[in-house]
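Journal club side-thread
Mid-discussion, someone asked how the predicted structure for our own chain would compare to the paper's figures. Pasting it here so we can look after the session.
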Amino acid sequence: MARYSYAAPANYPATSDWVKCDWEALSSQLLEQWHDITLEELEKTRKDRHAIARLIERKEGVSATLVENYLRNLERTLPLFQ
């Protein structure tokens, strides 16, 4: 089983707004849930929770605030690796 670090990606601004779970599992779940977004668009967000929420708001018409809450809940329920 792969081990995942909670450190921010390289060249990433210091912030607590990037997602803190297995990115592969999260992006897979998001692509399954939101059919109008692409993996390329998700990758461009650089794992920033606000950017992901704005992307989904723009493409799916769901409030960014609701999407951010959804993302936080997903982060808590997806398996975390240390």
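Post-session note: Residues 25-77 form one domain.
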